[in-house]
């Protein structure tokens, strides 16, 4: 790898880490903020939290292909900066929210501009070779996770001084990230690899149609879709689940999310490279899906707090499947189409975010509304995650066998 490529990767990783730190800050305090604004209990607050994520995801579903295609035309840098500035505005709305409507407006703004990860992933694809693609995707996922270490800790600590304080910190951090990117982030897409912007391809349905032209990866994308819905059980339900079942404090929730982030850094920056080199992307992905299923089962049926920690370890080890999916899918597309691919994937994953938080939080609400009911089971959303991940595993196994036969 030449020095300029190392520099570009370093900048992408720093921007990604700083951006997710801003996201991580708000996770521990969001349940309490909703409770305060709506004047309700934690069970009902979970449903509001799901619909807030729905609003964000719906906008991302619509606009991610637009931004992805724009990055293929004008480069990654400008689109990434737009995304960062949009998140700054979002956090300002959350910080000074007077009622629940303000939260929805902020989440809508963030969803429209929320393409930072997809553009960063496209940047990684721009400068990766077949030999280092999986490792580089592991690095960016590790950078993403590092923000989830720092962010929840800051959010948990600042949340003790008021539910609005962490959002002010997130706004400052996001704007600082924008300034950092403006002056120091180099574009990774060469002008010779840029292509004309086409509106018919810059919408979710056009993006899906384009993705369908790659029969070897379309079933993988479907599997990734189901697994991503399952993965939302952690950010969407975790805070509500631990408050309901174990009466965790905001500070403890923040530390637990930071623990998840630390584990993710180790897995994505170290374990991914080892597994990919030794077993290949396919076996690594299957391995990850099996571990994810075990992790979700342990969380669902945990009756003692200590069991949550080995469950989190197993679940995070399972996250190698995400990098495996990314690497396999990305390897099938040219550099000039990486932005469109990543935008299409972001839109599809945005669709999973439209479905997942309302679904999972409503399942949580249904099974926790009455503690004396025979149906009381806070871990129910994690059983849904088990089922969805199992479907993804079956699809992955079938796809892997078909690709092997094609090569032979």
UniProtKB/TrEMBL annotation:
Localization in the cell: Cell membrane; Membrane
Major location (coarse): membrane
The keyword Transmembrane is assigned to this record: yes
One Pfam short name: MFS_1
Gene3D superfamilies linked to this entry: MFS general substrate transporter like domains
GO molecular function, one term: transmembrane transporter activity
Keywords noted in UniProt: Membrane, Transmembrane, Transmembrane helix
Domain Major facilitator superfamily (MFS) profile: 8-404
Keyword hit for Protein biosynthesis: no
UniProt topology in membrane: Multi-pass membrane protein
InterPro entries: MFS, MFS_dom, MFS_trans_sf, Sugar_transporter_CS, Tet-R_TetA/multi-R_MdtG-like
GO cellular component, one term: membrane
Residue intervals passing through the bilayer: 48-67, 79-98, 104-125, 137-158, 164-185, 217-241, 253-272, 284-301, 379-398
Similarity comment: Belongs to the major facilitator superfamily. TCR/Tet family.
Function of the protein: Resistance to tetracycline by an active tetracycline efflux. This is an energy-dependent process that decreases the accumulation of the antibiotic in whole cells. This protein functions as a metal-tetracycline/H(+) antiporter.
Name of the featured protein: MFS transporter
């Amino acid at each position: 790898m030449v020095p300029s490529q190392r520099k570009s990767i370093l900048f992408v990783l720093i921007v990604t880490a700083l951006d997710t730190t801003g996201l991580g800050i708000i996770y521990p305090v969001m349940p309490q903020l909703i409770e305060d604004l709506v004047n309700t209990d934690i069970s009902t607050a979970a449903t509001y939290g799901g619909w807030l994520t729905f609003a964000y995801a719906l906008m991302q579903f619509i606009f991610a292909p637009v931004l992805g295609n724009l990055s293929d035309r004008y480069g990654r840098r400008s689109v990434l900066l737009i995304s960062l500035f949009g998140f700054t505005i979002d956090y300002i709305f959350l910080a000074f929210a007077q009622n629940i409507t303000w939260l929805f407006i902020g989440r809508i703004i963030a969803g429209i501009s929320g393409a930072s990860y997809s553009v960063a992933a496209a940047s990684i694809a721009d400068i990766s070779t077949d030999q280092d693609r999986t490792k580089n995707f592991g690095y960016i996922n590790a950078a993403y996770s590092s923000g989830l270490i720092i962010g929840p800790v800051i959010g948990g600590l600042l949340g003790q001084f008021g539910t609005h304080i962490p959002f002010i910190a997130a706004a400052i951090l996001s704007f600082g990230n924008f300034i950092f990117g403006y002056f120091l982030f180099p574009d990774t897409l060469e002008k010779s690899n840029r292509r004309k912007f086409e509106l018919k391809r810059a919408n979710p349905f056009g993006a899906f149609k384009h993705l369908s032209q790659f029969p070897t990866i379309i079933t993988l994308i479907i599997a990734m879709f189901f697994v991503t819905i399952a993965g939302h059980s952690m950010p969407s339900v975790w805070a509500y689940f631990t408050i309901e079942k174990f009466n965790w404090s905001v500070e403890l929730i923040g530390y637990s999310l930071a623990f998840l982030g630390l584990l993710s850094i180790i897995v994505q920056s170290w374990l991914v490279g080892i597994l990919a080199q030794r077993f290949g992307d396919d076996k690594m992905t299957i391995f990850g899906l099996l571990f994810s299923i075990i992790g979700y089962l342990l969380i669902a049926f945990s009756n003692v707090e200590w069991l949550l920690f080995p469950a989190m370890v197993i679940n995070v080890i399972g996250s190698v499947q995400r990098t495996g999916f990314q690497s396999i899918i990305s390897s099938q597309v040219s550099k000039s189409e990486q932005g469109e691919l990543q935008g299409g994937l972001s839109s599809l994953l945005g669709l999973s975010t439209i479905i997942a938080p309302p679904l999972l939080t409503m399942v949580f609400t249904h099974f926790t509304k009455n503690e004396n009911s025979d149906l009381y089971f806070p871990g129910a959303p994690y059983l849904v995650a088990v089922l969805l991940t199992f479907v993804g595993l079956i699809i992955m196994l079938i796809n892997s066998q078909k690709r092997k036969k094609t090569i032979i």
